[in-house]
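Hi F.,

I've been meaning to write this up properly since the lab meeting, where we talked about keeping a consistent format for the predictions we share between groups. The idea is simple: the sequence comes first, exactly as it goes in, then the C-alpha cells exactly as they come out, then a line or two of notes. No screenshots and no reformatting. I'm using this chain as the first example so we have something concrete to point to.
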Amino acid sequence: MLLTITTTYQPATDLGYLLHKNPARLQSVEITGGLAHVFYPEATAQRCTAALLLDLDPVGLVRDRHGDFALAEYVNDRPYVASSFLSVALSKAFGTAMNGTCKDRPALPAQALPLAVTVAVVSAPGPDWPRRLFEPLGYQVETTAYPLDATVPAWGASPYYTLHLRHDGLRLQDLLAHLYVLLPVLDNDKHYYVDQQEADKLLHRGGDWLPRHPERDFITRRYLRYLGSIVNQTLERLLEGVEESSSSVDSASPQVGATANDRAETANSQAPEPDGATRGLAESTLLPKLTLHDQRLQQVAHEIYQLAPKRVLDLGCGEGRLLRLLLRQPKIEFIRGLDVSHQALSRAAQRLRLDEMAPRQRARIELVQGSLLYRDARLAGFDAAALVEVIEHLDENRLASLEAVVFGHARPAHVFVTTPNAEYNQLFALPAGEFRHADHRFEWTRAEFAAWATGVAARHGYQVRLVGMGEAAEGVGAPSQLAVFGLLVD
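Output, unedited:
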C-alpha cells in the first residue's frame, strides 16, 4: 500500500523538516508483518512529495499463530489496502510530526499548508463514504473506482478505491491525525486487539475534531470494532471533552447529523461576563461561550469560590475537570477527588499532570477510589462537597444510601448537587421517557428534584437553595439544576 503527501508551500522541502525525514535518502521502520519505507519521489523548492510505502509479508502476518491452516490468512487484501497497518506505520514513521514538534523549525508545525494526499488503495463500505468522512473536515475528495474483475464486467465494482484528498490550508499534524483515525474506519478492521487503550488513542487523535463530525458515531463504532461498552463510554467522553473548541458552536444551531442526545449535552449558551471573583479562578477557564457541562462546572466552582473553603471534596470526580478549576483557587488548602472508576482516576491524574506538579501543589490534591454508597472515613472533615451530574447515574432506590453517606456520615458544611432538568429535554427533541445519556437511570423534573432536595435537607439538618443552570426557557426552566445545601448551625 502506498500513501503520498504533497505540498506546494514554499520552500516545499520544509515538508522534510516537518516529517523529520531527510528527502535525500530512503528510511525504513519495522512494523508488524513487514517494513514501512519513507522516500521522496520529488523534492524541490516549488513542490515536495513524501511517500510512505508498506511492504507487508502475508506469511509473516500469520507466522507464530496456532490453529488450523486457513487459506484466507495468506490470501487476502492486507498487503495492499490501507488499514490499521498504515495507521501504525504513520505513528512509527511520523510520530514526531503527529505530535506537532519540529526542532529545526519550531514555528512550522502551526503553519497551515496546501496539502494533497493519495492513498492507493482504500476499501470502503460504499463509494460515498470517503466523502462523508473527509469532506466535513474541509477536504476536496476524489475517488477512482475499480471493477471487481476487468474481464468480467457483470461482476460489477470492487470495494476498492484510490483516494485523492486536497486541502488548501491545514496543519500537517491535523492531516496525519485524520488519516490515522479514518483509514482504519474505512477498512473496518484492526490487526490487533481493541481495548480501552484503543479508545484512549481515538480520544487523543480525534478529540479536537471528532465530537462535531456528522459521522462521529459511525467513526467511533467502526474504530472500536463495535465493542458496545467501550463505544458508549468513548462517545460520552468525546461529548464531555468538548471544552475550549466547543465554544464556537452556537446553541441555536445544533450540529448537522447530531442526535438529540448529543445536542442535549453539547448545546452552548452565552456565558455571563465574569465578575472579579470568578476571574480569579484562572484567565483560561472563562470563555465567551461554554458548553452546558462547562457551565455546570464553572457555576459550582464559583459557588465554592464564594465560600472560601479550606477543604473540598469532588465526589464522582471523573476525569478531573472540576478538580482543575478548584486547584486554581488558592484559598483551598486540600482537595480530594473520589471516583469508583480506576480508569477515570488515571485519566484525571494525566489531565491534571500530577506527576509534574511542584511538591507543594501536589500536596494539595489527592485522588482516591471509592463508592458513595458505603461509609468512608476519608469523606469526613470537609467544608464543601460537589456531586456534579452524579446522582442520575445511580438507581433511585440507591439514593438513600448516598444520602446516608454524604449527608448523614460525611456531613460537609456545604454540598452542591447538579442533575439534568427533564422538562428541558423536549427542547432537545428527545422522545418522552428518553434520557440524555444511556447511563442515566433517571432524570427529574424541577418539582421532583426540589422534593428530593428539601427532604434530604430536612432529614439531616441542612437548608437548601435551588438554582437553574444554563439559559432558561419559558415553561420548562433551565437545562440543568443545582441544589446548594448548607449545614444548619445548632
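Notes:
The chain has 18 helices and 16 strands.
Confidence is low (pLDDT under 50) at residues 64-72, 241-264, 266-289.

If this format works for you, I'll send the rest the same way.

G.
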